[in-house]
Amino acid sequence: VSSAEESVKSQLEDPCVQPAGPESSEASESQPDTLLPLPVPGHAGLSIQEMVAMSAEVDTYAITKRVKEVLTDNNLGQRLFGERILGLTQGSVSDLLARPKPWHKLSLKGREPFVRMQLWLNDPNSVDRLMEMKRLEKKAYMKRQHSSLSESPSREGGVCMGDYSRAVSPQPIVRDHQPQLKKPRVVLAPEEKEALKRAYQQKPYPSPKTIEELANQLNLKTSTVINWFHNYRSRIRRELFIEEIQAAVGGKSGADGESSCDGAESDSRASGLEEPNPDEPAASGHTDALFTFPESSSALASSSASSATPSSNPRDSSLRRKKAANLNSIIHRLEKAANRDEPHEWEF
DNA sequence: TGCCAGTCAATAGG
DNA sequence: CCTATTGACTGGCA
């Protein structure tokens, strides 16, 4: 029941509305930060970092929920909000709003965006100010469009913020000849991801040797494999946090006692980590691994474009797998803590 | 060195 | 345009 309606600590209350000031930030469209480097507006020279350090428990889930509402209600985008208010890029904002980590698991740095959101929400003029910025941006954009029509390719001297050089430029095909300053961005094929996920199930923390092998088998750079494991691990971890939050927020009736060691049931929403439908026909290899769950493999090898299964429980087996992998992960840590190298087999 | 938390930024859909 | 996803990078820690 507890939850937290305005669990905001007094600190963050912000009655005094910053008086707009000489807002001359114009002309130079898309000038990076306007007021990111933090001497917080109406707060006696307190920097955000100081506020973060002082602020008490904050309900990150509630905050992001509110922010999403306010943004959509007012037709304000994540990009604008991120760049002007949080000092983050659109992708980061999207991620943050979609799956906020619980406050107590955030580092000081990680808490900063939430404090800023809190501040923003408490400022009665925040929305209007943002809308004004949006207007100005659009105006600047129009101006640019207009001027570019009358002259040669006007290369903006801007700080490469919103620079979409495309559209009208006669560049039939991007047969790039430009000095590879732009690394092509690796895009793993679904099957490659599958293979990596399978490998993860076996060993969340592969040894350099294993990584090397995987890289060779899949024809990927080892750094790509390494990065993939880092990313996957942390994203799985975050998934678990979210389940934790939802479990806490959810059932308010009676004690939600979970007998099992890890309270993390509740239906977790579709996450990017979930594969449409794992199971490879073969997949006969997984015998070792500390934990492995059989999981009745199903046919249904529909490649992607799932969305089918109008009503069934797609996840569950995947949830179980996540838990299994999580256990392996925990074991890995315990072993490390125990100063034991090579997380090899244990006897249970 | 390896790990992690935060992010960035390219991209894929809408 | 906008949002979601995700490989790669950065800084901190041990």
From TrEMBL:
Stretches with biased composition (Low complexity): 296-312
Superkingdom field: Eukaryota
Domain CUT: 49-136
Entry similarity comment: Belongs to the CUT homeobox family.
Membrane-spanning ranges: none
Region: Disordered, residue numbers: 1-41, 249-324
Molecular functions per Gene Ontology: DNA-binding transcription factor activity, RNA polymerase II-specific; RNA polymerase II transcription regulatory region sequence-specific DNA binding
Name the UniProt record assigns to this protein: Homeobox protein cut-like
Record's subcellular location: Nucleus
Keywords noted in UniProt: Coiled coil, DNA-binding, Homeobox, Nucleus, Phosphoprotein, Repeat, Transcription, Transcription regulation
One CC-aspect GO term: nucleus
Residues of the Homeobox domain: 179-239
Known DNA-binding region: 181-240
The keyword Transcription appears for this protein: yes
